[in-house]
Write a structure and sequence with these properties.
Blueprint (H helix, E strand, L loop, with lengths): L1 H18 L13 E3 L29 E4 L2 H5 L1 H4 L10 E3 L2 H12 L20
Parallel strand pairs: 2-3
Antiparallel strand pairs: 1-2
């Protein structure tokens, strides 16, 4: 009987422990995931067309989302889309340079301001 109770308690506790994770904020090394571009112009993306792994029948097509993912994840999206809960969603993968040079400073309230825009970014509407 004690083994049964131990197994029962273990079965109840393991899912809770497995769901605990480390939280990373935007701009921290290792942050990958959905990006809300808000009022920023559309960012440069890795592929011109959104990638969809599983077409889901819907009345209205879902809007594409923007994601920052490690380099290998975009190339093999079918293998990695479940990590981002985006297998049935059209996805644009943002370019790393745009994320670091434009999105992070904008999101952290450190906008470029006059004279602080990196070369070439003003022409593209990023600043």
């Amino acid at each position: 009987m004690p083994r049964f109770l131990f197994a029962l308690v273990l079965a109840a506790v393991l899912p809770v422990c497995a769901s605990a994770g480390v939280s990373l904020s935007i701009g921290q090394p290792g942050f990958y995931g959905r990006i809300d571009i808000g009022a920023l112009p559309p960012p440069p993306v890795i592929y011109q067309q959104p990638i969809v792994v599983q077409q889901v029948p819907t009345v209205v097509a879902p809007q594409p989302i923007y994601l920052r993912v490690p380099p290998g994840h975009a190339k093999n999206w079918r293998k990695h889309c479940h990590r981002y809960n985006a297998c049935g969603q059209p996805v644009y993968f943002v370019q790393e340079r745009w994320y670091n040079d434009v999105y992070v400073p904008h999101h952290q309230g450190k906008g470029h301001g006059p004279g602080h825009c990196p070369p070439g970014h003003a022409k593209k509407g990023w600043c």
